[in-house]
Amino acid sequence: MTVVKISGFTFIRNGVELGYPFVPSIRSLLPLCDEIIVNVPRSTDHTLETIKAIGDSKIRVIESSWDEKLRRDGLALSHHTNLALRECAGDWCVYIQGDEVLHEDTVPVMRAAMERELNNPAVQGLLVDYTHFYGSYWTCVYSFGWYYQEVRVVRGDPNIRSCGDAQGFRTAAGQKLRVRKSGGRYFHYGHALKADLAERKLRNLSSLYHDDAGVKAEVCRRPPRFYDDDQKVRQFDGRHPAVMHDIVAAADWTYTSRNPLIRFRRDYFWEDIALIVKRCTGLTLGVHRNYRLIK
What is the CA radius of gyration of the chain? Predict the structure, then answer.
């Protein structure tokens, strides 16, 4: 039997204020990982105390400063991700963002993939599948342009690092990673927050890309109830991760789209074509792949 050491890593700043489900996010990695590194940049709320209160010996908290000079192109996100990554001691390192939760049903197959590929240096990372929620916890995206797989497991290699705005990983030379599928599934809740929290989150995230005027412009573009009323979604009839049960049960808001999945109007034409292709073949069009999938 292959013995593999698995590190989890993440960073979270002002997670309480922004309504991120960061405690369930961290807890969801506990059954998979031998250690979890949580980087907490200087916050103005009780994020640090909340993480320490989880009280699991696998969790190691590091604290870091917050540099306003990184307020461009989302670079603060990859910077603080890498601060956590470099503390990882595992053969494999599993990244999770503060609004993502690993479904416990996929932990065994994810671990098996890491054991299987441990001694195959050609594989630098592993993909996880995504379910993106939009507007509520019971409506999930079924649309053109969203990513449905992303690299969230990387080999414990100092040559691999988070890049850009922490969407994915590259080598130090900027090359895409060679990856295989892990079988893991992440639930992404960043677009399922209550409208007031979603706006607060947008202001915070936009501040990592734009100046104050740019942030104001981003927020002003949102409709009165914040969420677009024509997002392509379908009802979610599955089961949320167990660690999310209380949060989902307490949610008292809903979302309804005026946009049927297939419309064939000018504004939606290519989305409709992509959706038909996805339904018929399983292929997802219109997504930039931040990796090289190997067979």
Answer: 19
Q: What is the pTM of this model?
A: 0.90
* Rounded-to-integer distance, Cα 86 and Cα 117, Å: 21
Cβ-Cβ contacts under 8 Å for 135 (sequence gap 6 or more): 191, 192, 227, 231, 233, 254, 255, 257
156 to each of 63, 136, 137, 161, how far by Cα in Å? 21, 36, 34, 10
**Tens digits of pLDDT across the chain (295 residues):** 678 999 999 999 999 999 999 999 999 999 999 999 999 999 999 999 999 999 999 999 999 998 766 666 678 899 999 999 999 999 999 999 999 999 999 999 999 999 999 999 999 999 999 999 999 999 999 877 788 999 999 999 999 999 988 889 999 999 999 999 999 999 999 999 998 888 888 887 787 777 778 777 877 778 777 898 888 899 999 999 999 999 999 999 999 998 766 555 666 676 677 777 776 776 666 566 889 999 8
Crossing angle for the helix pair 195-206 and 212-220, to the nearest 10 degrees: 150
CA distance 232 to 256: 10
Q: How far apart are CA 162 and CA 80, in angstroms?
A: 9
* Distance from C-alpha of 249 to C-alpha of 263, rounded to nearest angstrom: 33
Residues in the chain: 295
